[in-house]
Structures are given as C-alpha cells and as structure tokens.
Amino acid sequence: TADAECPPDSQVLGRATWTFLHTMAAYYPEAADDRQQGMMRSLLTSFSHFYPCGRCASHLREEMAKHPPQVETRAGLAQWMCRTHNSVNVLLGKDEFDCTKVDERWRDGPSDGRCSWAQDVE
Ligand code: FAD
Question: Which atom of ligand 1 is nearest to the CA of 10?
Fold first, then answer.
C-alpha cells in the first residue's frame, strides 16, 4: 500500500520501536557482566535523548529518572521494559499489559506452538 512508503507517524514508529526494545530485552544476557550493563545503560540513555518523538522521549527520560533501567539480568530488563511500556499505556489510556506474559509475547510464543518461528531471531 501507499502507506508503507510514507514516513512513519508516532503510532507506526512506536509499534516498531517497542518490538525492537522488548525483543532486545528478551535476548539480553541472563546475567550481564559490568561491561554489558554499562553498554545497555548508555544505549537506553542515548535512546531517551534521540528517540524521534519529542514528547515520547521526554516522558521516557522522566520515567528513567524515577525508575532507572534494571540492567543486571535478562529477566530484570524484560520486566523493566514492560513496566516502562505500561507507564506509556496508562498515559495514553490503554490497558496495562500483564508483565508475567512478557516472555511468551516477545520470546517464546504461545504454548500451542502457533508461532513456529519463535526463537528464530537468536
Ligand atoms: P504498542 O503500545 O506500540 O504495543 C505493541 C505491542 O506490544 C502490543 O500489541 C502488545 O502486544 C505489546 N505490549 C503492550 N504493552 C506492553 C508491555 N507493557 N510490555 C510488553 N509488551 C507490551 N505515544 C504517545 O502518543 N505519547 C507518548 O508519550 C509515547 N511515548 C512513547 C515512548 C516510547 C519509548 C515508545 C517506544 C513509544 C511511545 N509512544 C508514545 C507510542 C505508543 O507507546 C504506541 O507505540 C503507539 O500508540 C501504538 O500503540 P499500539 O496500540 O499499536 O501498541
């Protein structure tokens, strides 16, 4: 469609970016070493300055100041990302996502095997 050739609006950009962020968290090291933790902290800090939606980036910086990213473990980062996304969901009047389902949604796929490509990204 023509839309696919248009620059993304904040919705399209947001969906694509959450896909990236949650998937990155889903494949983060189970126990990150100091160097990996530092790199992830600086990635997220830089991200919060350059995300190309001004009000979104500003909200993210506020959230990160209140709740610094948990970069020690994969599970911690995945949960932090889920809570951060939920803070945006609340801001936009959307339902909160059940963070116990984050691995199913972004890494493993549902247990009925319908997503046969799950884990292809590794
Ligand atoms: P999205 O919110 O994009 O979610 C995509 C999919 O992620 C959902 O279908 C669901 O399966 C899953 N999901 C939903 N919540 C969670 C969760 N908590 N944890 C894990 N998975 C989840 N828009 C604004 O208008 N104002 C803002 O201030 C704003 N800030 C943003 C900040 C960031 C860092 C990002 C990446 C986006 C921001 N957006 C903002 C965009 C907004 O979050 C949505 O991406 C956009 O409104 C499209 O929403 P959507 O309903 O398609 O689903």
Answer: 41
